[in-house]
Amino acid sequence: MPSFKSPFFLLLSSLFLRASLAEFVCEDLPHDVCAFSISSSGKRCLLETTMEKDKVEYQCRTSEVVVERMADHIESDECVRACGVDRNAVGISSDSLLEPQFTNKLCAPACSHNCPNILDLFFNLAAGEGVFLPDLCEAQRINPRRSMVEFMSSSGVAPGPVPSGAELFAGDALASAPAPNSLD
Fold first, then answer.
1. Where do the H-state alpha helices sit in 77-115?
2. Rounded-to-integer distance, Cα 119 and Cα 69, Å
3. What's the rounded Cα separation, in Å, for the pair 25 and 29?
4. 0.70 surpassed by pTM
5. Domain segments of the chain: what residues?
6. Residue (of 44, 75, 89, 74) closest to 62 by Cα position
7. Is the distance from CB of 45 to CB of 31 less than 8 angstroms?
């Protein structure tokens, strides 16, 4: 006697399989988990703003930045806290690497050993500025002020207003920095 349990089981299995194969699309995410997420296609999600009836509205969008070897990822709240990033930040910039408090958190083991997505993002931002993030972290650990000066000088970032005491330090730090090796 045929059992009707088999076809029913097959129907349920196919429904679960289809649900598990669903694409993770940035545009479907709520804005409070958008930043630092990666879609099924491996592209980073980014938070954007629009004006709707004199009110700022947040929207999650798919960027063109592809993350290798990572997809379907929503960053954990633990990593967001440990790395000192803000999910409500619109756009991400290498400027945050100039802030010693941020760099301390990013380079701390709680972030650098446990949050590969955030680390990859800032590694690439630093590389875009001509800076190797592990070197910046090491310099930050040894001498935080000098690391910021070295980052600014290697990246071409124009310094903002600087108090006169810091100007003296910056000049001394640059003068004492080792000269790059030439490949002549």
1. 77-83, 100-107, 109-112
2. 14
3. 7
4. no
5. 24-74, 87-177
6. 44
7. no
